[in-house]
UniProtKB/TrEMBL annotation:
Record has Membrane as a keyword: yes
Coiled coil: 188-215, 323-354
Major subcellular location class: Golgi
Compartments, as annotated in UniProt: Golgi apparatus membrane; Golgi apparatus, trans-Golgi network
A Pfam family that the UniProt record links to this protein: Arfaptin
GO terms for MF: phosphatidylinositol-4-phosphate binding; protein domain specific binding
Name of the gene: ARFIP1
InterPro entries: AH/BAR_dom_sf, AH_dom, Arfaptin_fam
UniProt-recorded name of the protein: ARF interacting protein 1
Length: 406
């Protein structure tokens, strides 16, 4: 900070009380000590002016000016006010220190210049501030993005692939170990027996379904042949007058057999549809849950094996976090395995109840229809279809479209 000391040294003897008060108001609260020191120095300078020659005053002024020019280089901006070239620690030094603390960060005292301009009536202090030299940087406006909240889809997919690869590797290793007889597996004997029975029954039901479809196909061909044969007998009955009655009897018999065959065919097709729903939907859904249960069992055994291997190894600062993480994964897959085992048990129970109910009705239908057909009991055959709410498709009439059904 640069002070014009020549203006402060001279003319202070002419200050009145009013002038000093105006100077205090101009400089501010922090300059009160400086003004008091300036008044005292004015009295001292008046005494020195009477005893020293003019040449000595010129020499003192040049020394003060030189020291004032060197003061901006000092970061503390100390002001040296002397009359004989010696450094004086006065009230100005305290004012400079207070002013330095009151200025903004980055604005040193070396960047501020305080001058005092004198006139006949008023004295005022002017503070001139230069540009900052390496002060506080201005913050640039713009959106602020937090790195933790940024979600990168590529990184998420890569993490999913990494977890999937690690899980697949562990499960594959567990399966190979079980097949080679080296690894242990968790077995629920009761549940495994029920699953094995279900798979065996599914194969048998599929065989029944296949044979019933074959019977339906063959019966359809026979009915179609009987219908054609009845039409041929009826045509010959009209054209052969000598054999009119004989052809007529055979035509009626074949048409009756074709009609009863269509009724039996409707019952067999209903039986096939019900068994197909049981085998390929209900049982298949249960077996899908069984597959999920087996996958959960393999994952559970894989992570159980990893945890056992880590527990057998040394325990230090490097292995303890791995053991803790493995324990968490093991617990998670154990809960999944228990849940899937419970789901399989419930589905097997419901499947058994539904299977008994469905097969009971379908087997009764199949028996009554076959017995009535081959016994020639058309009334009993029709009653069987009504009992199971079976509607026969009229020959030559296509099924209604889904718009017509609506």
């Amino acid at each position: 900070m640069d002070y014009s000391m020549s203006e402060l040294d001279y003319g202070l003897t002419d200050y009145s009380v009013t002038d000093v008060q105006q100077l205090r108001n101009a400089v501010g609260q922090h300059g009160e000590q400086l003004v008091a020191g300036m008044s005292e120095r004015g009295n001292e300078l008046t005494t020195l002016d009477d005893s020293q020659p003019a040449a000595e005053e010129v020499q003192s002024d040049s020394e003060v000016s030189a020291m004032a020019q060197e003061s901006p280089k000092n970061s503390a901006a100390e002001i040296s006010v002397t009359t004989n070239g010696q450094l004086e620690d006065s009230h100005e030094h305290n004012f400079n220190r207070d002013l330095k603390h009151s200025l903004p960060v980055g604005l040193g005292l070396s960047e501020t210049k305080i001058t005092s301009h004198g006139s006949d009536n008023t004295k005022e202090g002017v503070t001139e501030a230069g540009p900052f030299q390496g002060g506080r940087m201005q913050q640039k406006s713009g959106p602020v993005v937090l790195a933790d909240e940024v979600k990168n889809p590529a990184m998420e997919k890569l993490e999913l692939v990494r977890k999937w690869s690690l899980n697949t590797y562990k499960c594959t290793r567990q399966i190979i170990s079980e097949k080679l007889g080296r690894g242990s597996r968790t077995v629920d004997l009761e549940l495994e027996a029920q699953i094995e029975i279900l798979r065996d029954n599914k194969k048998k039901y599929e065989n029944i379904l296949k044979l019933a479809q074959t019977l339906s196909t063959q019966l359809y061909q026979m009915v179609h042949t009987q219908r054609q044969l009845g039409d041929a007998f009826a045509d010959l009955s009209l054209k052969s007058l000598e054999l009119h009655e004989e052809f007529g009897y055979n035509a009626d018999t074949q048409k009756l057999l074709a009609k009863n065959g269509e009724t039996l065919l409707g019952a067999i097709n209903f039986f096939i549809a019900s068994v197909n729903t049981l085998v390929n939907k209900t049982i298949e859904d249960t077996l899908l849950t069984v597959k999920q249960y087996e996958s959960a069992r393999i994952e559970y055994d894989a992570y159980r094996t990893d945890l056992e291997e880590l527990n057998l190894g040394p325990r230090d600062a490097n292995t303890l976090p791995k053991i803790e993480q493995s324990q968490q994964l093991f617990q998670m897959h154990k809960e999944k395995y228990d849940k899937m085992r419970n789901d399989v048990s419930i589905k097997l129970k419901f499947l058994e109840e539904n299977k008994v109910k469905v097969l009971h009705n379908q087997l009764v239908l199949f028996h009554n229809a076959i017995a009535a057909y081959f016994a020639g009991n058309q009334k009993q055959l029709d009653q069987t279809l009504k009992q199971f709410h079976i509607k026969l498709k009229t020959p030559g009439v296509d099924a209604p479209s889904w718009l017509e059904e609506q």
